Amino acid sequence: MRKVVRDATLMDAPVIVELVKELARSMGEESPLIEAYVATYLGSTSNTILLAEAQDGILGLLSYSLRPNLYHSGDICLIEELIVGEKARGRGIGTSLLGELLSRMTLKDIREISVSTLPDNHKAIGFYRKHGFKEEGVLLEIHPVKKEQ
What we know:
Elements: E1 4-7, H1 13-26, H2 35-43, E2 47-54, E3 57-69, E4 74-84, H3 93-107, E5 110-115, H4 122-130
Parallel strand pairs: 4-5
Antiparallel strand pairs: 1-2, 2-3, 3-4
Helix pairs in contact: 1-2
């Protein structure tokens, strides 16, 4: 099977939404993502979505953002989502997507590439470790709720 990794376009918004919603469902959650927000995301010059495509369609995606970082005195890359459709798993799709990202970041002066995952997602942790990632910190989150006026 021949796979191609390419940048997403606005025409890919429906499949991007479906892949994100599939990921959310697998965790017992719902994602509010809609096609209009995919357009907003892709409209930012610091964001990119890579798609893995084969004859049977879009198989997975990797979204990432680049941003300046004071500590590193240069740009860093944050992998936001790496999603492989359930039916396409075990075919090297995630490795292809991550490989393309790593190649792109090697060509730029990127000081760090980071990713987060849930602590019990042992498959993802093993995948990233296999590709040279190391645990170097703790990610803490808060999800602010907008106060009603």
